[in-house]
Amino acid sequence: MTCYDRRDVGLLLLRLGTGGVLAAHGAQKLFGWFGGGGIEGTGRFMESVGYAPGRQSALAAGLAEAGGGTLLALGLATPAAGAAAAGSMAGAAALHMPNGFFAAEGGYEYAATLGLAAAGLAVTGPGRLSLDHALGHVLDRGWMVPAALGVTAAATAVVIGARNRRVRRAKEGEQEALFEE
């Protein structure tokens, strides 16, 4: 008989909470559920803040959050799920960075917390109360953790870097227009 310890229960609670919140945010982006904009509305927003093309950015963020969150909650493919969710939250944190840390001021606190929790779960693993454990960890091997986090970090750096360049060019264009007036 298998006895689950408090670590397993704690990881289950962390996975359910973090994964559930991420999945709900992804559903807002993908389907317009819970007051979200769906692909079209989220795509317009993404474009307006420098993530272009907007529709594809909305789809990528929605899939990373909904898919990564759902998989985290289930404890399935935990390294990939945690990395995907962490990458999406890094993109959200980059957007909120100019507003400072605290979420009450529009800062990156919330996105950073979700991203760090997702990354922590990717590193720690899902515990024994998970589908990964039930399936013999075929989608949760040790080598998958650095691979998933490394690939996600590289892709996220490229996306955020491109977004920051677009935002910087737009601000420079606005300043030039002011001087011309």
Automatic annotation (TrEMBL):
It comes from the Bacteria. GO terms for cellular component: plasma membrane. It is found in: Cell membrane. Signal peptide: none annotated. Coiled coil: none annotated. Pfam families: DoxX (PF07681). Keywords: Cell membrane, Membrane, Transmembrane, Transmembrane helix. Its main location: membrane. It is a multi-pass membrane protein. The chain crosses the membrane at residues 71-95, 107-123, 143-162. InterPro entries: DoxX, DoxX-like_oxidoreductase. PANTHER family: INNER MEMBRANE PROTEIN YPHA-RELATED, OXIDOREDUCTASE CATD-RELATED. Belongs to the DoxX family. This is RpiR family transcriptional regulator. It comes from Streptomyces fuscichromogenes. The lineage of its organism: Bacteria, Bacillati, Actinomycetota, Actinomycetes, Kitasatosporales.
